[in-house]
Amino acid sequence: xxxxxxxxxxxxxxAFEVGQWEIHMARFPNWLVSLTRSALGTIVxxxxxxxxxxxxxxxxxxNCNGTHQGEGLVALRCTLANDPGPGGLSSxxxxxxxxxxTQGDVFLTEGVGGPVLDVxxxxxxNTVIFYSDNVGGFDALADTNSPPGSxxxxxxxxxxxxxxxxxxxxxxxxxxxxxxxxxxxxxSDSAVAEPSPVALLxxxxxxxxxxxxxxxxxxxQSQSRTNGI
Length: 229
Fold this sequence. Notes:
single chain; 14 strands; alpha+beta
């Protein structure tokens, strides 16, 4: 029976009986409940918008600095090469990925609905090409006179975040979207040092969402016999 049970006054509690089984979930403080709700909201929101995230994290910038976080952290090969895609330019920053990504173009915009600043191009092979604007002058390897002359039909637009000099975007493509095969951290101005805490957090949340989808939303509960512990 559920008796003589003392729990904190504030928070959330679940306790009920089903036949000869008692189902318990401890009472949690309000701050923990709010934090949990926020985390779950982030998982669901990202999962609905972008689909399941890959366990791979690719971080690249405008100066041929890139890393791939999979089973370990490794540097990505980067060269200046010709873009074979539609309207592609010559001698553009091209990273070699350890997997084949879905073909398409990703537009980085200045705020939601703002002008396109950078273009990340996936040609359906194991490369990603970084086209950067030259608004502040030609101060990065990826700066070009213009974006590609034309684009793939498969495109996605995402807004850059952060102050000028240290901005970029986190991109978690779903099936069929450009670049599907990894989660990406695009850095527009500052150099790549290591995956940022935000990028790793979003990667972890995406992986949790992926696991939840595969296993189903199993209820969190502990069971004990009424004459047990």
